[in-house]
Amino acid sequence: MSCLAWNCRGLGNPQAEDELENIIRAQDPLIVFLSETWSGRKQLEKLRCKIKYAGLFTVPSQGRGGGLALLWKSDVAVWVDSFSKYHIDVVVNGMTTEPWRFTGFYGEPNTSYREEAWSMLRMLGSKPHLPWCCMGDFNEILQTEEKRGGRTRPHVQTQAFREVLDFCGFIDLGFTGPKFTWHSRRHGYLIWERLDRGMANYDWIAKFPAATLRHLHCFSSDHRPIKVVFDPNSESQRWFRRPFRFEEMWLADSGCSDTVLRA
């Protein structure tokens, strides 16, 4: 069981939509959060039908940018508690006896308005506590080691991000895979940053103590998809396939040779 979050940078691009379908088929997440969909409900409903997910909730794009979507499988019941241009916050039932909370979050890309996003996250953090996991593209780093190339990030920006995460009681889930989740070339510099992350409160980590986060690969977006796996052991077993073995006794069957030739 897993949740996946990805800043797909627009699903109007056929390459991005094809890649998303391939990622979902390969990773088989229970819940999918998408940011910067640049799409309306109608297009996302077509996607939901293609990938055969049971539920869809969307926040429309604004002009030629933005847009959020949350998709989920029939294995769980999802109740949408709140949403904005920055987030979709839901309560999840069905996997375990106790409900838990999932928030897909998208940080404000314009630093002049970033406090709006952090105020929204604080509001979410002030709600009655359930086990809580939050994933997405936060458009910010926590420390200088999460950036390579370009200008140094002002301390006041990273400090503001750190303070809101502390207020929410979030613990960074860490990651496996490549160090950075976003890259771009600006002002002649190649820049790499860890903008996408997963975090959870203590109750969620106690509920899913083996959970790990993975940075995945993609080609159509400048952001990597990220995936939280609740139980890595069950995930590896899901992908185990018994190897094919040819049985000598099949040669005794008169139709064996014909079958091999047809193949």
Automatic annotation (TrEMBL):
Residues 5-189 form the Endonuclease/exonuclease/phosphatase domain. It holds the Pfam family Exo_endo_phos. SUPFAM superfamilies: DNase I-like. GO terms for molecular function: catalytic activity. This is Endonuclease/exonuclease/phosphatase domain-containing protein. It comes from Quercus rubra.
